[in-house]
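REQUEST ID: PR-0412
SUBMITTED BY: lab tech R.K.
PRIORITY: routine
TASK: structure prediction, single protein chain
INPUT:
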Amino acid sequence: MDADTLTSISQQLAALADGMRRSGVPTDGAHVHRDGLSMRLIYSRQDLVDTFNDFQDRAVHSIDALDRGGRPAHAESQSKSQPAALARGVRFRVVYDPSVFERGDLTRAMLNSVRQGEEARVSTNVSTRLLIRDREEFIIHTSEASAASHLAVQLTSPVLADFINDSFTKVWETALQVSNRKFESGTLLEDDEIQILRLLAAGQKDESVARALGVSVRTVQRKIQTLQRGFGAASRFQLGAISARHLIVDRESAD
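STATUS: complete
OUTPUT:
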């Protein structure tokens, strides 16, 4: 599945949250129940934080999340309810956008969560924030460009559950698996992987990349394929564009 498809899925989730107000949901934050669907709009950041914590307090089996970053500087970095949930055996799987590494407080919070047992991956295909409790209850953020007055929607829906869970799974399975050692160092890629991306961005062929690294062409091709899968890139060109756009590779060094 290529990057455009994955990004489209993430955007569909945000669009779902954007459109909820037009479906007749009360604007006072009250729940509405209709045809097996339970939902409410979240308007304030404090309500959003409280609802995030409540999800984790009530989680029995799992919390899955897409983290786009974008929180205000004063917002709490790690949920206060996460450590207790991890301690009682709740599985946390979180896909982070690389922009999280641009803020020291978010990076430190992420590292702390990983040390406590969170499973974390990185993807450039995260265009919204999503939290899933036990695969049955959801918080979906509106898109950054949304004109909606609400920040997110909380919902439970057997009809939408499969779509939302499948959407998360697709992003998770194609996200870049980053070892705890890499998270600890704040480095997403190995030095040779960064060098490969820089050389590709400079227009070098596999043979030239192999000579520069002192490895076989087959090794270079295998690493490129792994990087493409990790970033959901459909081609070598798209891989270079993705890495540059999200500052994974120093652009000046790629010239």
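NOTES: The mean pLDDT is 77.
REVIEWED BY: pending
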